[in-house]
Structure formats: C-alpha cells, structure tokens
User: Fold this.
Amino acid sequence: MANDANKSEAKVTGLRAPKPCVMCGKPSDRKFHPFCSKHCADLDLGKWLNGSYAIPVVEEDGAEFDEEN
Ligand SMILES: [Zn+2]
Assistant:
C-alpha cells in the first residue's frame, strides 16, 4: 500500500481556491461565502429551518371533513 502516500500528497493543494458552494458546488463568492450566491445561501437557510421545524405537510384529502362528521 505504498500508493497511499502518493495519494495523500496529491490531496494537499496549496492553492487558495475558494471552496465550492456547499449547495451547488460552484465556486463560492466572497460576498456569500460559503455560497456562490444569495440564492444558495437562502436555500441552505431553508434547509436548516426545515430540519428544526417540520414543515406542515398539506394533506387535505377530505380528512377534515371526515372528522366533522
Ligand atoms: Zn451555489
């Protein structure tokens, strides 16, 4: 497994390349770091909110009518 050493060396990139947008993988913009745009930042925010709050799923297939009976 001597190849492993080579692999780890290749992993280290000394470039100060911007991290890819965590949402879509495009190069992130400094203004919206770590995202590429406000759009992706908003998407991520929504994702976190969704994790904390269960989005009320609209399941209105007449269920309410049944209860009123
Ligand atoms: Zn993005």
